[in-house]
Design brief:
Layout lengths: L26 H13 L3 H11 L5 E2 L1 H7 L3 H13 L3 E6 L2 E6 L1 H10 L7
Antiparallel strand pairs: 1-3, 2-3
């Protein structure tokens, strides 16, 4: 009798793969999202976004220094990156800038992860 061996998982193609059933995102959408993800590719920026998303009103730069444990210029640098990516809004109040989350930007990010709805 000849012994039949199981196919090697590393050299054999997958026997059962789910086909791609929905179209991917367009090139322009991918470019926009890449900018958002690039802005979020830093732990400090994620912390800033989290702090602002949980704030009841726009937050002054000076109020982010202590929770982040960073200097004002460093906090301002990260806020500028998030602002340029479209994730934040800035409001001037005298000499201080107050920041809040741009809801539409967060909606775009959420959409990426909900392309096909529930599966």
């Amino acid at each position: 009798m000849t012994k039949v061996e199981a196919p090697d998982a590393q050299t054999s193609p997958a026997l059962c793969c789910a086909p791609v059933s929905t179209p991917g995102i367009r090139d322009d959408q991918a470019a926009t999202l890449a900018q958002l993800f690039k802005a979020l590719a830093d732990p400090t920026r994620i912390r800033i976004l989290s702090l602002l998303a949980n704030a009841d009103e726009p937050v002054c730069v000076c109020d982010l220094i202590a929770p982040l444990g960073l200097s004002q210029p460093t906090v301002s640098f990260h806020l500028k990156k998030l602002l340029q990516s479209g994730l934040l809004r800035r409001e001037r109040r005298g000499t201080w800038a107050h920041y809040s989350v741009e809801p539409e930007a967060l909606a775009r990010l959420a959409q990426v992860f909900d392309q096909g709805g529930s599966r």
